[in-house]
Amino acid sequence: MTSRTEVPESGIGAPVNRVEARDKVTGSARYTADVRLRDMAHATVVTSTISAGRVRRIDTTRALAAPGVLTVITHRDRMPWRSTPADTGYLENRFPLADDKITYYGQHLAIVVAKNLEQSLHAASLVDIDYEVDASVPTLDEAMPDAYTANGRLIRPPWPQHLVLPPGADPQAALAGADVRTDSTYRVPHFSHVPLEPGAVVAEWSGGTLTLHDCSQDVHGHREVVAAVFGLPPERVRVLSPLVGGAFGNKTDVWGHSLLAAHAARVVRRPVKLVLSRKQVFTSTGHQPPIVQRIRLGAGREGRLAVILHDTVNATEMRGDRPEPAIISTASSYAAPVLAVDAKIAKVNIGPSISLRSPGDAPGSFALESAMDELSYRLGMDPLELRRRNHLNTDPLTGKPWSAKHLLQACELGAERFGWARRTAEPRSMREGGELVGYGMATAVRGEIPDRARAEVEIRADGTAQVRTATQEIGTGALTLVAQITAAGTGVPLGRVSVRAGDTNLPRTAGNAGSRTTGYTGSAVHLAAEKARRAAVRMAVTDPDSPLYGLADGEVEAADGRLFHRDDTKRGETYRALLARHDGKPVVAEASYTPRTSHAVATFGAHFTEVRIDPDLPRVRVTRHVAVFDVGRITNHKAARNQAQGGIVFGMGWALMEKLTPDPVSGRYVDAALTDYHIPVNADVPDIEVLFIDEPDTIAHPHGSKGMGEVVSVGVAASIANAVHHATGRRITDLPITPDKLVG
Amino acid sequence: MEPFQYVHARSVGEAVGLLARHPGAEVIAGATDLTTLMRDGIRRPSHLIDVNGLALDEISALPDGGLRIGALCRNATDDQRIVRGFPALVEALRSGASPQIRNRATFGGNLLQRVRCPYYRQPEFACNRRDPGSGCAALDGDSSRHAILGTSGSCIAVHPSDCAVALQALDAEVVVRGPRGERRIPIDAFHRLPGRTPEREVMLRDDEIILAVELPGRASSAHSHYVKFRERASYAFALASAAVAVEVRGGTVRSARIALGGVAPKPWRARAAEHALLGRPFGKDAIDAAARAATKGAAPRPDNTYKVSLAQAVVQRALTELGGAR
Amino acid sequence: MPDEVSPHPSRRTVVAGGLTVGVAVAAGTYLSAAGAETASAADATRSLSLIVNGERLKLAVDPRSSLLDTLRDEVGVTGPKKGCNQGACGACTVLLDGRRVLSCLTFAVLHDGQEVTTVEGLADGDRLHPVQQAFMDHDAFQCGFCTSGQIMSAVALLEEQPGITEDRIPEAMSGNLCRCAAYCNIRDAIASASDTMAKGR
After folding, report:
1. Contact A119 C81 (CB under 8 A)
2. CA distance readout (Å), A204 to A30, A37, A120, C11, C193
3. Coil/strand/helix, residue A43
4. Residues A107 and A667: beta-carbon distance below 8 Å
5. Per-residue pLDDT tens digits of chain C, which is 201 residues long
6. Between the CA atoms of A12, A18, A20 and A21, what dihedral angle is there, to the nearest 10 degrees?
7. Fold topology of A451-593
8. Which of B38, B32, B34 shows the shortest CA–CA distance to B98?
9. Does the keyword Oxidoreductase apply (chain B) (predicted)?
């Protein structure tokens, strides 16, 4: 099997421009905060400035008297919520303004609505709150002694929090008996998603129906929660997600500000727009919690693992239990005969956490892939060779073979492109121009999270096609993906395919999270498009007026908006001609997709990083990065390469600069601002070479493609940290690797 | 944001008069700092006196070979007289903020920008600089980016300017005007150390405005250099920076001015480092000695001791590159 | 607008929420600039004249309103985005009298009589500005939220430094964050637009 380097010029794989590209370069692309409705009022949420305690008194007199103010709502005067968080699947275990209790900094305490934005912001500053302050638990370090196993009442993780394989094995004994051992503890801080678009919502009531324009990764999921909270049947709530300005997980679930805006719109009987401030984004739409991970590896001298022990503790909010699944892929990574993983949580006064791009696997791979690098040094073995020797062909977690796995090939290809052979193993052994040079590598695995998907494809008498599915466009290229698959399946040219999406009036499909769009929604669209084409073919071969009359269905193919004989392409007719004879009615096909489960399905990758570090002014510069991904067939090489590069830079941010710091006294975030929470800028980013194995995985999904938005970030931090170790001899185990950790 | 009266001043005299009449008034020009301070409720001016258009944006030559830079000159300036005669200043300006911000930010405003200490910038924290007498939350908090020099028990914030660090090394003077006329303030005296009154940040009186910054014609100025070190490649405040201006004659250092940024509550003049260079050959030994001396008197906190090394390293780098550039 | 696709692919519009390549269901209820409620309800407005994308406008604004909010809420030009409102992301970048600035970091009242160009004012009818075309062709965005700012910054950069060498683009574009991190493509797009513009001169 060889890697395909050629990129198709048309059809699946073609590097076509995004279907919404023109809108995005002309300013006509519409995002939630761009929605403007008649008589729309502007809301501002007032948030707590303490992290533990209660509201003793909240005085809204001055705010209500301020110019332009329409209402101020607090816990004392909100309307009753009609359900409970547990019953609705609401992420935070408390509805907004439920009571006077405060368990985290930035908790919503009031919503102010005024005629214009400045009035709303001004009035919000006039809400006077008297707090009763309790002692808070500001950091994970303080909470660690009380770590415990989540009890499963508040959460239902789809992954085991405690696991020993094989059952009954004695991991401690296996570790004690190993020739070579490592034992290290790795720390990751609070990370924030930081989409450039802050959470925004526009709520409008008409009669008893609520329309919510909300930046959402899952409109149907949002609708379920919102309808339950307001005691409405789902059909009385419509959620529209305009283009989403980045999400990375923080727009998968409904947050309190959306409920508050809908509530306020009902009170003031006008549409209400609410856009979170950047500071509020850090506390109102989740984060990845800090995690402490201990990894112990035991191996034989020949480099085969004997045992992996992976124990994690992550911070969780006071009101809920949310273990971060950093151990989720540990069992699926390497061939260790004995494995033990354990996840615990510890209560901290922080807001609710939520999935952040590759939840579990991003932090988990930092620890495991760093530990493997450490082991390679203990063994005196090339880190790539260590991975080869512990390669897995079957997923120990499920006992099933993978539908496709080309990880070794990805490693070989990446190593060759990168020039891994030039690496001299000794730390600090490579220098150039006064700088230390380091090469590091890591591999990546990301298991798929099954979901169901639905889509509708329509071939029309005017020769166009339309695909309808409630997917959202968060920047991953979902609209282009479904358009390309529709074009390929129907034979209608891409330029004549329209897309409708982001609306609960459309067929429910997988949320744009967990790398599910390509595999699941893509498959539903693929099936619907095939079905529509086959229906049209049937129509033609049974129509005496069609040039295709009498042919077997399988002899007819479609391209360029036309059906034709497979062996005599001149014999055929356009969809237009065919449908004109059938009253001009469109052919409509709907398909739903549920994946088969005979195999384990995952995506894989290999990263190779070069860093250069000035020993006196030690900022880690990533100067080269080569990555190879095994994600099935690529639907659009242009968008895929872009997404992969972006995911790698996302991982660079975690590795080198991102961190949300709780003040050790108050638990407030010190750096909840983009001036302080640094993400990479253009000048931080080197040229990044991305290669794809590009082999269809039709066991996983009928069109052979799998999602890749997450695996591209997995392993990046370890690859960089391993390169830093190679360059400097320092093993940095707590992210981010900022200059202070390398000085001296 | 609190409502305010907006007034567009038609002359410097009118602006000064308005400031004198309205104690709550503030001058606005580039607006790049004041807008966010007002949005966050840190500054609440009763009046905003708009001085844009007051013809204070010119750069003119001084008889001694120096330059007078108008207070409203934007930080994006690429005036060749600065580029050639005062390279450290241009390097500092170009390392600051972003092109968009430099197009608006003015020289006067740059000198008056407020500290970036997160405890100052977020009103829910105690801060003596923002609310005198309220305490300093940074002392018990995260002080990893705070000052190691010139701090007091009431404030440990660092001054954020790059430009002002270069101006220190170039021995600039700030020309100001108030109701009683013009006066000149040496740059080293312009910014104050916090002491017990961190809220008094500069020597500018409430009823004065900055007219210009003057750079004297010094032999060392054309032989000056700025090095900035930060956490990411661009668009970040300095963890440590150094501006150096050295006059070398016959291979020997005749005069030297060295200033540090990112490590003190004001642009920090490293006099001990200057002394370590004077009269010595401008080579590695003197540079090493100067770098070591640059942090004399440093009192780092447990979480920012790394800044001592960084400060020494930026001085060493700046001097070395300056030497190499000869 | 009917729920249909223009036959010319390059003219196709995609509207999300409902995202439609063609049109949104709720489109009729979205307001144009003319229909928006102005700040007349505010306590103290100030009259102001701005030339936005070549059109002279008389506005009554709250003095507290940033140039960004004035453009978005009063003028109805929503290309410039509010990513941080603190001058740290660049999504609000516009040209002010031809120079790139952050519209969130200034008050509208400071700019009486000045000329503002947003991304909406770049194309010449149907003909895109070379930077816009290059951003499309090089896929220089993912979510697109930072794109208006990136494009305005790039347009200004190529005015500031015509023929800029590729290695100088990253620093010159570091005032515009892109969380999706399409940075490599942004650089390629700008270099390519620079070539196109050089050929056109």
Report:
1. no
2. 18, 9, 18, 31, 42
3. strand
4. no
5. 333 333 333 333 333 355 664 323 223 233 333 333 333 334 579 999 999 999 999 999 999 999 999 999 999 999 999 999 999 999 999 999 999 999 999 999 999 999 999 999 999 999 999 999 999 999 999 999 999 999 999 999 999 999 999 999 999 999 999 999 999 999 999 999 999 999 987
6. -160
7. Aldehyde Oxidoreductase; domain 4 (3.30.365)
8. B32
9. yes
What would the DSSP string read from start to end of B72-110?
A: T-BTT---HHHHHH-HHHHHHHHHSS-HHHHTT-BHHHH
Asked if B119 is an interface residue toward chain A (Cβ–Cβ < 8 A), one would say yes
Q: Does domain B1-54 have CATH number 3.30.70.20?
A: no
The three-state DSSP-derived secondary structure of A476-509 is: CCHHHHHHHHHHHHHCCCHHHEEEEECECCCCCC
Question: Whole-angstrom Cα distance, residue B164 to residue C88?
Answer: 21
Q: Where are the domains of chain A?
A: 360-449+598-741, 451-593
**C interface mutation test: which of B103, B116, B230 has the most C CBs within 10 A?**
B103
Q: Do C177 and A40 touch (CB under 8 A)?
A: no
Sketch out chain C's domains with CATH numbers: 45-121 (3.10.20.30), 130-200 (1.10.150.120)
Task: Check: CB of residue A329 under 8 Å from CB of residue A360.
Answer: yes
Evaluate if residue A30 carries a pLDDT over 90: yes
3-state helix, strand, coil in chain C (%, to 5): 40, 15, 45
Chain A environment of B143 (Cβ under 8 Å): none
> Measured between CB atoms, does B95 come within 8 Å of chain C?
no
Q: How far is B275 from chain C (nearest CA, A)?
A: 36
- Please name the residues between 134 and 153 in chain B that touch chain A, using a CB distance below 8 Å: 137, 140-142, 144
Q: In what order do the strands lie in the sheet with B209-215?
A: B59-61, B67-70, B209-215, B173-178, B181-186
- Computed over every residue of chain A, the mean pLDDT equals 96
Across the interface, whether the CB atoms of C12 and A19 are under 8 A apart is answered yes
Q: Measured between CB atoms, which of A122, A664, A684 is closest to B141?
A: A664
Domain spans of chain B?
Answer: 1-54, 221-325
Query: What ipTM, to 2 d.p.?
Result: 0.97
**Set A448, A530, A610, A710: catalytic member:** A710
Residue A419, CB-side half-sphere exposure with 13 Å CA sphere: 9
**How far A665 CA lies from chain B's nearest CA (Å)?**
6
Closest CA to A574 of A497, A490, A468, A498: A490
In this predicted model, what pLDDT tens digit does every residue of B245-267 receive, in sequence order? 999 999 999 999 999 999 999 99
- A668 near B CB under 8 A: yes
Catalytic site residue A710? yes
What's the gap between Cα A192 and its chain centre? 12
Q: What is the dihedral of CA C160, C163, C167, C171, to 10 degrees?
A: 10
Structure tokens at B157: 């914030």
Q: What SS3 class is residue C4?
A: coil
Phi-psi region of C16 (alpha: psi -120 to 50; beta: other; left: phi over 0): beta
Please, are residues C42 and A116 in contact by the beta-carbon 8 Å criterion? yes
B10 with B46: CB under 8 angstroms?
Answer: no
Percent of chain A with pLDDT over 70: 98
Considering only the top CATH level, what class is B221-325?
alpha beta
User: According to CATH, what is the number of the domain A360-449+598-741?
Assistant: 3.30.365.10
Neighbours of A409 (CB within 10 A): 18
Q: How many CB pairs under 8 A join A and C?
A: 307
Cα separation of B152 and B147, whole Å? 10
**Which of B121, B304, B310 is the closest to A617 by Cβ?**
B310
Chain C residue with the nearest C-alpha to that of A674: C88
Write the CA distances from A710 to A148, A344, A655, C143, C153, integer angstroms: 29, 24, 16, 16, 30
